[in-house]
Design goal:
Blueprint: H1 12-31, H2 37-45, H3 59-71
Length: 72
């Protein structure tokens, strides 16, 4: 395990995306009879994100690119 540090952010884009993910997660949960948290996380990972537009666009593609850089 790596060491991590949590801190406040002044980046309004990050705060906005976290708010949007919370909204989308609530909408997903309300539309399902049974909630599968893995499916929810995969669904949210495909969501386009403003902070990632200049790179890979969505968390799933950003993660794939990061892994490819580290192991490629």
């Amino acid at each position: 395990m790596a060491h991590h540090r949590l801190a406040k952010t002044t980046n309004r884009s990050v705060v906005g995306m976290m708010t949007e993910f919370a909204f989308l997660g609530s909408a997903y949960v309300e539309s399902q009879e049974a909630v599968d948290l893995v499916e929810l996380s995969l669904w949210l990972a495909r969501t386009p994100c403003g902070p990632l537009y200049s790179r890979h666009g969505s968390p799933d593609r950003e993660l794939a690119a990061h892994i490819a850089r580290r192991h490629g």
